[in-house]
Amino acid sequence: MDKLCGLCASVRDKKDTHAIMKEFKVGFIALSKASWATPQIEGIRKSAVDSLKKLPYPIVQSDLLTTTAAEASEQCEAMRKQDVSAVVVLFTTFPVGAIIPVIAKELNVPIVLLSTPEKPQPGKVWAQNSFCGANMAVHTLRKLGRKCTFAFGTADNAGEAVRKPLGVIKCLADLAASKVGLIGGRVPGFYTSTCDEMLLRKTMGTEVEILDLLEVVDTAKKLSDADAKKGEAAVRETAACCSPRVENDIPSAGRLYEAFLKTAKKYSLNAFAVRCWPEWSDLYGIAPCSTIGMLNNDRFVTSCEGDVLGVVLMKMEASLSNGGIPFFADLISFEYDKNTAVLWHCGAAPSAICKNFADTELRQHARVDGGDKKGLVNEFPMKPGRITLAQLDEDNGGYRMLIATGTAIETEQIIHGNPLNVTFDCPVEKLVGTIMNEGFKHHYSAIHADIEKELIELCRWLNIVPVVVK
Description:
L-fucose Isomerase, Chain A, domain 2; 35% helix; disordered N terminus; Rossmann fold
């Protein structure tokens, strides 16, 4: 298994309620043969720099073309000192072959190779040979056991050319900086929620902190009145109305929400996987479902039923969609003739992705203790739009990922909880057949974005086997 180019060792800092990764900085090196360097070639470098500076990342670069291995080594040293997270290598011309091994050795970060289109110049001169240089480099990197990615575009559009590759690399960094709080372990009998912590740490760098749910309950009960009132107000803001039968549960839900935030801060966590049943309602009086939805509203990704890989997948989707909010769900029904399937969970969905906020309602759980006896869930159907459905699974000592795209359609409150009806791009019969024939688990995550290509690229970096249903 390849190392994640040093990202797994990234420093975690505390900010507000949870750990965050170090600043994502991008190095830039523009290569050229010294004898090929001209004002035109220098103009390509400058144009690329100007475009890259439009990206939402600090750019660390030299103001000169790099023409020798020694110059490359100097730039690598400067970038190490500034702790870059990735490097874009532009082939303004075909370079000296010895430069790429230097970059590979001295910069232990993911590499994006960028070449530009070109046409014969006056005198039938091929002035750059840019793609050929990148082609040589990718072979060299493969021989050195280093993964990279390739982008192609004009220098004045370099930022857009590398935007998605850098987004995937930033996702690698996000995963490596992640620390998941597993509250209470997995739920009884859910072997689908089992996770090999060391495999996860080795492959993605993600750390798991196992915590007793009694600690969270105790924290909730010992909150100050001020924190309790703050939490209660936050709960009420997540729904348009509240069933009279759960009015007495709102303060408890507010305390629980604040307790999760305090727990995250205490242990430097940035995600949760929660054993949401069967103990919560007995130990605390309510289920944690509405709290899970609130945390996801905050973009603090949280999965149900102790599913660590589920929340890791949610982290992937949130990162690759530039901060989108994922929906952790079961697939509960389908209609082959309409090519639709219904995703659902019991009331822990984030209200930020509801169909209509006016329809959101805090109510009792439809299943806990036989149903309609204890709170607290936030009930509503999900919003329509393009989605990507995925499922991350351990398999044969590694990982595989199910991927399918579709369009969420207008969904009514057809069942208690949070339903979402989806028309898939693939035949639903094929999707169901793949799930059942290949033995995928029953937890999925959907994101309102089309990130199929990005997930496939992420799988390539992490040696995850993609199972794309078409």
